[in-house]
Design brief:
There is one protein chain. Helix 5 runs parallel beside helix 6. This protein is of the alpha/beta class and 428 residues long. It contains 11 helices and 18 strands. 30% of the residues lie in helices and 19% in strands. An 8-stranded parallel beta barrel has the order 7-8-9-12-13-14-15-16, surrounded by 4 helices. Strands 2-5-4-6 form a 4-stranded mixed sheet, covered by helices on one side. Bound molecules: 2-acetamido-2-deoxy-beta-D-glucopyranose (NAG) (2 copies). One 2-acetamido-2-deoxy-beta-D-glucopyranose binds next to helix 4. GO terms for molecular function: cellulase activity; cellulose binding. Its EC number is 3.2.1.4. Keywords: Carbohydrate metabolism, Cellulose degradation, Glycosidase, Hydrolase, Polysaccharide degradation, Signal. This is cellulase.
Length: 428
């Protein structure tokens, strides 16, 4: 492994162009085609095969420094150092890329309770009339019963409750909530809170309103902030509410400008009095865990802060499916995502003192998905210092025939889980 790494580095340097990566920017790794040298005061450091990063320190060698080999280092053991260069004393300790020695259980594990997002498309067109409450009193599935079952029988402790922006305002752009519609959504929120679980309010609009991108030609940051002011004012005193700023932004022209839109939402939520709850910060590419670093989301969102300048309870929102095109539409799974997504992400998070939450993942109820999902779950558990947990997609109003159904079947007073949930997604 080390030999391969060094040869690969030499090749990069022979071909290297002379642009330099910024502090904490990527400077190499399999598939990386960008700059391979770092700005003055930082040094290119091999975190793993897929991700080299510019970390603070004086460059004393022209080759990247290998701080450790996470896949071959036993937890708690000494990192294996390469002989190409020694880490300068001012560089962060190699431990930021080690596996944690005592990872605890994942903090939050659960499932999406879909329905209020029905009618939403990836262009941010959410037809208010398309929303279908997953509650018996509104002729939907028994979302309240499902959540109770998931908590009692499976040990789940978080539910994500997707909803379209247009539904909350009854198609009026801005921040004024439609009381009739919000009363229906709040019934689901209250059913969630009644189970004792945490409840994610997920604005399911793909960074858009009717095809136009927030802060980049579509709704203004003020309009985006206004909807969050209204929602956060309503739930300011509920500790177990988690604010999911936006579902799956994609094809965002300017990621730093998007970071400013996310900042506007965070500021609005905190100033509305929701000062302590978790807020989830979403990046580009459908919040892909795999593209989070390489496509600039990590850098753009790493500068988002609370009004007091802190980053307390600001957590990155990432999604990842296990099928061949990461779309979450295929019954068969082909990857556990560890090498391509979770390992580079966890190293970056650890080295930057940040955390992420995987709020959508899932697969078919098939043998291939059981295998890969269980590997992914195990990896996330081993890295619970930087990964808060996962939320499966999806239950609620999805039928059991839906390809990614995690909807349990009720028979009398007994609930039976989907195969993938039973296999290893349920902690109990
Ligand atoms: C709220 O939405 C309902 C549709 O659910 C609509 O009939 C009603 O007119 C709206 N209320 C206001 C004040 O716009
Ligand atoms: C990165 O984001 C840009 C702009 O949204 C997009 O065009 C590009 O496809 C993304 N790259 C990857 C690898 O997803």
């Amino acid at each position: 492994m080390q030999t391969v790494l060094l040869l690969t580095c030499a090749t990069w340097y022979a071909l290297s162009v002379h642009a330099q990566s910024s502090l904490y920017g990527q400077c190499g790794g399999i598939g990386w085609a960008g700059a391979t040298t770092c700005v003055s005061g930082s040094v290119c450091t091999v975190l793993n095969d897929y991700y080299y990063q510019c970390l603070p320190g004086a460059a004393s060698a022209s080759n990247p420094i290998t701080t450790s080999a996470p896949t071959t280092t036993p937890a708690g053991g000494s990192p294996v150092s390469s002989s190409t260069a020694s880490a300068p004393s001012s560089a962060p300790s190699a431990s930021c890329s080690d596996l944690p020695t005592n990872p605890g259980p994942l903090r939050l594990v659960g499932v999406n309770i879909a329905g209020f997002d029905f009618g939403c498309s990836t262009d941010g067109t959410c037809t208010a009339s398309g929303a279908w409450p997953p509650l018996l009193q509104y002729y939907g599935a028994d979302g309240a019963g499902q959540m109770q079952h998931f908590v009692e029988d499976d040990g789940y402790n978080v539910f994500r409750l997707p909803v379209g922006w247009q539904f909350l305002t009854n198609n009026v752009l801005g921040g004024d909530l439609n009381e009739t519609n919000v009363a229906e959504y709040d019934a689901l929120v209250q059913a969630c809170l009644a189970t004792g679980a945490s409840c994610i309010i997920d604005l399911h609009n793909y960074a858009r309103w009717d095809g136009e991108i927030i802060g980049q030609g579509g709704p203004t940051n003020e309009q985006f902030a206004a909807i969050w002011t209204s929602i956060a004012t309503k739930y300011a005193s509920e500790d177990k509410i988690i604010f999911g700023v936006m579902n799956e932004p994609h094809d965002i022209p300017d990621i730093d400008t998007w970071g400013q839109s996310v900042q506007a939402a965070v500021t609005a939520i905190r100033q509305a009095g929701a000062t302590t709850q978790l807020i989830l910060l979403p990046g580009n590419d459908y919040t892909s865990a795999e593209e989070f670093i390489s496509n600039g989301s990590a850098d753009a969102l790493n500068v988002v802060t609370n009004p007091d300048g802190s980053i307390t309870n600001l957590v990155f929102d990432v999604h990842k499916y296990l099928d061949s095109d990461n779309s979450g539409t295929n019954a068969e799974c082909v990857t556990n995502n560890i090498d391509d997504a979770w390992e580079p992400l966890t190293q970056w998070l650890r080295c930057n003192g940040r955390q992420a939450f995987n709020t959508e993942t899932g697969g078919g109820n098939t043998a291939s998905c059981e295998t890969y999902m269980c590997q992914q779950v195990t990896y996330q558990q081993q890295n619970s210092d930087v990964l808060l947990g996962y939320v499966g997609w999806a239950a609620g109003n999805f039928m059991n025939t839906y390809v990614l159904s995690e909807t349990p079947t009720e028979s009398g007073s007994t609930w039976t889980d989907a195969a993938l949930v039973s296999a290893c997604m349920a902690p109990k």
